[in-house]
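Reading a protein record of the kind used here takes only a little practice. An example makes this concrete, so a full record is given next.
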Amino acid sequence: MRISRSTAGTAFVGGAMILTLTALAYPSMLGVENAASGQDRIIANTQYGPLTEADRDFVVKVRAAGLWEQPLGQMIMERSKSPAMIEVAEHLLVGHGRLDAGCRKISTDLGITLPNEPSPQQQNFVATAEGSSGKEFESTAVTLMRIAHGGIFPTIAKIRATTRNSMVRELADTTNDTVLDHISVLEKTGLINHEQVSFQITSPPKLPQEQTTPPPPQQGAPVRVLEIPENLKDLQTVAPNPSYGAPQPTPSAG
């Protein structure tokens, strides 16, 4: 059965179609529980500035987003012929490829463990879109991603406002640009149910942590790389190619 723009809202309320801000959340950082002192606890002092639990979790959130949205972009590329949908796919593949390169650079320099698979909930999002076809597939895919991109803004803003780590700060800037770019191309499709987007972002259901936490990587497994297709490496988007590497200036003693 096809889901039209007028009925998509009903379908998205229940079951597998529920999408919340926790789709991008990674609260326990691969099994490492947050301390009672909160997310502002400094877990490492680095040449790029102190690293807090919130900083670390943000890097994993960005990585986890790419682990489900990049495959969905590939699926759109294979299934859709609409120029607007092809543009969505291209920007997803490029944007998340660039963000993923930043996450992998940061994880190496700051000692952050990254997941190789999306969370069970995120896997369910991909499966939900994969199980539809035609216009239903396109509407399902863009609405899921529009909710996700709109929901991550508060997290980006909070990290950008509070982090003292220059690498995490640059990732927040680039993520913000990328999210805005993706929202723009998603909205150009004309397939988004904006009422449902508003409902899911403002009234997200609470889900158990095991559904929203990506599984830890197998011991010794190489870090999965989200590659940018060769023919898209020069694609211009509003998201810049980040440098990720300027050390944090050391405060003078005087």
Observations:
- The helical segments are 8-13, 53-79, 83-110, 120-130, 134-162, 166-187, 194-202, 209-212.
